[in-house]
Amino acid sequence: MDLLLEAPWFGAVALGVLAVVGLVIGSFLNVVVWRVPRRESLVAPPSACPACGHRIRARDNVPVLSWLLLRGRCRDCGAPISRRYPLVEAATAVLFALVGLRLGWSAALPAYLYLAALCLALALIDLDVRRLPDPLVLPAYPVLAVLLGVASGVAGEWGALGRAGVGALALLLVYGTVWFVRPDAMGFGDVKLAGVLGAGLAWLGWGPLVVGGFAAFLLGGAYGVALILSGRGGLRTGVPFGPWMVLGAALGVAVGEPVWSAYLRLVGLA
After folding, report:
1. Count of helices and strands (H, E) across the chain
2. Distance between first and last Cα of the chain
3. Which residue blocks in the chain are alpha helix, DSSP H?
4. Inter-helix orientation angle 140-155/109-129, to 10°
5. For 80, phi and psi rounded to 5 degrees?
6. Mind listing the pLDDT tens digit for each residue in 217-254?
């Protein structure tokens, strides 16, 4: 029984809990996005104001609310605090609630909450430094394998786990081929992330895999064309592809199955 569907009141409470958890995780993601590319520890030293060096107090670390109460400025020196911090926290809360709506109170929920948090952090890092750090991407393979394996066991859907493995290999092959042919157009970090996204998409079905994989190239290509037409870029302008991979995967998770089914009906294969 899916409690998010069977009991509306419980569903509202559950989504609220997921949103609150998302706020907390989002606060941690801000640390991840800043420190991982710089190869700094995630646990020490404690967070401090980059302008004056004062340690951030616990009451000033409440996601979103503290930023609003402080009016976006450091309590000690008055230096501005980037809007990115509350935006990342709020975005993670929204993502967690949307994942809950999509999957319900199921055994697969932890896997896709993890994937949502990971993808948001990686997209931001790629925008900042145009890298997808191995310390975030590579551990995602065993973590996702365990989480999806548990979900498959609970649901008795071992075929989904096998499909996830095929999906990971498929996107690794596609991205690896593009990287081999055009290493100037795609980084190897994108290839490594492709396997993670392929597993997450394919566990849900072939439709999410195909739609999510195709959408990344479609969206990234459209953005590249827009840059050229606006005069802000050319054919050789480097564009971080990680965010488009993440956005494409999000579309695959959200609407991949109905879009794929509609396409199969359109071409007479369903």
Report:
1. 11, 0
2. 29
3. 3-6, 8-35, 65-69, 84-103, 109-129, 134-137, 140-155, 158-181, 188-204, 206-229, 242-266
4. 160
5. -65, 145
6. 999 989 988 888 887 876 677 789 999 999 999 999 99
Between CA 155 and CA 218 the distance in angstroms is 33
One-letter amino acid of 219: L
Secondary element (H or E) of residue 227? helix 206-229
Residue 111: closest CA among 243, 204, 29, 27: 204
For the record, the structure tokens of 208 come out as 């999410």
Q: How many Cβ atoms sit within 10 Å of the Cβ of residue 217?
A: 16
Residue 268, both tokens: 């007479």
State how far Cα 85 lies from the chain centre: 16
Query: In this structure, what token pair is assigned to residue 111?
Result: 């896997």
Beta carbons of 81 and 73 less than 8 angstroms apart:
yes
Q: Which residues pair with 89 in a beta bridge?
A: none
What SS3 class is residue 201? helix
Closest CA to 242 of 159, 120, 152: 120
Enclosing H/E stretch for 144: helix 140-155
How many C-beta atoms lie closer than 10 Å to residue 92's C-beta? 27
pLDDT at 270: 67
CA distance 142 to 138: 8
Nearest to 169 by CA among 213, 217, 116: 213
This model's pTM is above 0.90: yes
